[in-house]
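[Solved] Which block belongs to which protein?

Original post:
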Amino acid sequence: MFKKIIYDTQISNGTNELKFFGPTNRNDASVTEMTEEQILIWLFQNESFKLLFCEDLFKDNKIVKTFQGITEPFTTKNKKPGDLDLILVDPNYPEKTIVFECKRVKAVSQDDMPAKVNNIEKVKKGVTQAEFYKPLGFHQTYFVIILLDDGRKYKTPNSVFRTTKVEDLNNLWNIPRQKSLSEDIGIIFVKVEQTTGNHINQTGNFGVCIDRFATQFEQSNDLTNKISELITNRNPNN
């Protein structure tokens, strides 16, 4: 089950009638054009998404700090696992830092055909990369699949439901378990759905599903001190 936020934005001049989630002739850029780095920045700069993502992971999801693409002093550049895609931490509890390996997948709607889902092989490789996070010793480790779904070509009368069918995504959601991802590593699914030709900034929805919670480990004092230094010395992404 996904917790979702559905939105549509209209500009008012104070007199015109506003209609939401209606038809549009626009053909703006597809959400699937965003890179993995770009979509992570876009998501966590959105306060509504950040609160939604963090509400089941932290006691106080309103003060969580976000860091992306971090290497030293936690990893060594050009050595596995490379950079850490995402770090989330409550500054009051640096000893309970959560780290995330993220992989982006693209789904594009087609007329009268199943959606074309790309980047599946990268998700499989991501499972292996996530395993390299475990020895780093963070409180919790998660593997995140981010689906960018452009459903503008679907014919569903209500644009809110122009998204890829559940049955067409089963193979995607099953990858972490099929690839025997360690039971200690949690699994989170994120969907960003562009349901019309409007830009994703204007109309769309996003959802979060925690498929499996990560095991909680006691973090070393040395790692916790590094996290505290990160919070103090580096501006978070959000």
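(Second protein starts here: sequence line, then its structure tokens.)
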Amino acid sequence: MKNKSALESFKQKCRDSNLRITPQRIAIFQELVNDYSHPCADDVYRKIVKKNPNISFDTVNRTLLLFANQGMIKFAESYGKTKRFDPDVESHHHLCCIRCGRIIDFYNKEYDEIKIPNSIKNKYTVFGKRVVIEGLCDKCKTKNKVKGNSYGTE
């Protein structure tokens, strides 16, 4: 695990939420917190089942949804049909590659301080804000230059 304090923090959040701390939940959290690719439930399952062959996809999926609903992890923007998960609950933003779907974290204080318009604040309940930039990641940008295509679509 990248950060041992992340596991302790996770356990404390479980206690605060009255969630049992089970070996399956710990394994799922550890797999997610070590994977900053913003994986979907299937990605987490495929990795975790190698070490825990008795765990089901349903357990992994329900546990990830539970963690997200408890604020222990977040949902990441996804342009596909599958939900993707983000273990970093601290303020940060994303660059989403329009070609490969990769999501890259970045940090920017100015974006953290963007004011929410009154038309939104007065009408909705806002729980957070995150800037999402669409573009080409470094790998797709390099491939794009080779192909001579300026927008990332074929």
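Accepted answer:
You had them paired correctly. Confirming on the second one: The chain has a mean pLDDT of 88.
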